[in-house]
Design a protein that fits this description.
By secondary structure, the protein is of the alpha/beta class. It contains ten helices and 25 strands. The strands form five sheets. The chain has an eight-stranded parallel beta barrel with strand order 1-2-5-13-14-15-16-17. Strands 6, 7, 8, 9, 10, 11 and 12 form a seven-stranded antiparallel β-sheet that branches. It has a six-stranded antiparallel β-sheet with strand order 18-19-20-25-22-23. The radius of gyration is 25 Å and the shape is elongated.
Length: about 500
């Protein structure tokens, strides 16, 4: 246990956990804000501190998840694109959710979709060239005119909050010519117009992703989105932002936006980007370019979980090799699954059900990284291919173990390919500590050190999966066990909060 003299003791920083508060197939019943509002007290009790909520701006229909974004300034207030509500509910219900969350101490992270617009009100003519889908720097036609869905008038909003409308010259690309029904990737031509130079270099230039691609070199686009960031804060007091698809739009603009928010609203935001990339070098370069003010989701870790769960007797000691949490632990958001990697989605990374408890223990109970649990793993996945809550319903217990016990020095026992573990020795104000032992093969055991201050204590598994008890010897060691293809989380059986486990 970490010791500090009475005169110099400082409170140990709390362990924080976020939850992605949706999955792709949440019912389009316009009731999700209400569901979340009713859940926030229970989520806070499990150790969840911040909710990443789905995109709250009006999409192209009431059935879209918001990545088909139509109007930044409509949070479910105006009768457009099929109704007043977004898929998730009305603006009033959103405000009530945020207020209730703030009342119980839960922060809200907004999902900002700033790369594109969808559901245009009308077509506009513009000159384009078609480009090679696999090399967007290579033209495959001469310039010609198309009718693109590029006119956004927001008539139902009638200039409320922003008078900016959008036209062909506010975009750098689109994918449909209404004149002949042809789908392609069209780069829009105009004075000085081109793909952004400050994007990922996959496919030659990965500026274009989908729908009508915003051009942040146009001053009206930049000004409108900066104004929107201030307006959003005035409507819903959020603590942070998850930026969608950041490798597809200008890194330079995003840096400027962060400075604008710090200056005009105030500093202290939590900012995380979806930079879904299996190249660790590309991710660490992006973090450096953003002056370490930005976190990224640890995509390589998700791929490691997937690979290990699909490999018989996979080597668990390699689980963190090549991951962001290993290279940049402060700027890594660790996760097991999200709405893009869940089954039947574009980036599906299949983490087998047996491995989910191991993966969640690895992100929740260690010192490094900021873990994000997935709504679909807590509540189950809906839709045509339904899945129950993962980990036998134990994700909340793992979150609670993080909040109560995962503190202090970390001692690793990554010494056998099919069984690894670690101990957390506790701190002066979080004294209990824990041991986590996991196996992807048969039952196993390890002698593990928890500290002499714990000698004589009797420890049991908070998950209830490993029977028995361990008595800590005079030297601070115990012989800990775990079931086969499972995990055990050992804590003093009289530790504060033990009565809460299995009740969440």
């Amino acid at each position: 246990m970490e010791q500090q003299s009475g005169a110099t003791r400082q409170p140990t920083p709390e362990n924080y956990t976020m939850m992605q508060a949706f999955e792709w197939y949440v019912p389009a019943d316009q009731q999700h804000w209400n569901r979340l509002r009713q859940a926030v007290v229970g989520l806070k009790a499990t150790g969840i501190d911040n909710l990443w909520i789905p995109p709250g701006c009006k999409g192209s229909s009431q059935y879209g998840n918001g990545y088909d974004i139509y109007d930044l300034y409509d949070l479910g207030e105006f009768d457009q694109k099929g109704g007043v509500s977004t898929k998730w509910g009305t603006k009033d219900e959103l405000v009530q959710l945020v207020q209730r969350a703030n009342d119980v101490g839960l922060g809200i992270y907004w999902d900002a979709v700033l790369n594109q617009k969808a559901g245009a009100d009308r077509t506009e003519q513009c000159r384009v060239i078609e480009v090679d889908p696999n090399d967007r720097t290579r033209a495959v036609t001469d310039p010609y005119l198309i009718d693109g869905w590029l006119g956004f008038d927001f008539l139902a909003r009638n200039g409320n909050y922003s008078k900016q409308t959008y036209h062909w010259y506010h975009f750098s690309g689109t994918d449909y010519n209404n004149a002949n029904g042809k789908t392609a990737i069209y780069r829009i031509l105009g004075d000085g117009k081109d793909w952004s130079k400050f994007v990922d270099k996959e496919k030659g230039n990965y500026d274009y992703l989908m729908f009508a691609d915003l051009d942040y070199t146009h001053p009206e686009v930049e000004a409108d989105v900066k104004a929107w960031s201030e307006w959003l804060w005035s409507q819903v007091p959020i603590k942070g932002i998850r930026f969608d698809a950041i490798k597809h739009y200008s890194e330079e603009f995003l840096r400027n936006l962060v400075v604008h928010m710090d200056t005009r609203i105030g500093p202290g935001w939590f900012l995380v980007g979806e930079f879904w990339e299996d190249s660790l070098d590309a991710m660490t370069t992006y973090i450096r370019n953003m002056q370490h003010k930005f976190s990224l989701f640890d995509a390589p870790l998700v791929y490691n979980f997937s690979a290990l769960s699909n490999t018989e007797n996979g080597d668990l000691t390699t689980v963190f090799d090549g991951t962001l949490v290993q290279a940049e632990p402060v700027n890594a958001v660790t996760l097991v699954m999200n709405h893009d990697t869940q089954p039947y989605q574009a980036l599906t990374a299949d983490v087998q059900p047996f491995f989910k408890p191991l993966a969640y223990a690895l992100i929740l109970l260690r010192a490094e990284g900021y873990p994000c649990v997935f709504y679909g793993d807590v509540y189950g996945i809906k839709g045509d291919h339904q899945y129950p809550p993962s980990c036998g319903g134990k994700v909340p217990d793992l979150c609670l173990a993080r909040k109560l016990y995962a503190y202090g020095e970390q001692r690793d026992y990554f010494d056998f390919p099919q069984c690894i573990g670690w101990s957390r020795l506790g701190t002066w104000d979080h004294p209990f500590g824990l041991v986590c032992l996991l196996s992807n093969a048969g039952p196993n055991e390890k002698w593990m050190y928890v500290g002499q201050e714990h000698r004589g204590e009797v420890w049991t598994d908070v998950l209830g999966w490993q029977p028995g008890q361990v008595t800590i010897n005079q030297d601070g060691w115990g012989l800990f066990t775990c079931p086969g293809v499972s995990v055990a989380v050992w804590v003093n059986r009289t530790a504060t909060g033990r009565e809460k486990f299995g009740q969440l």
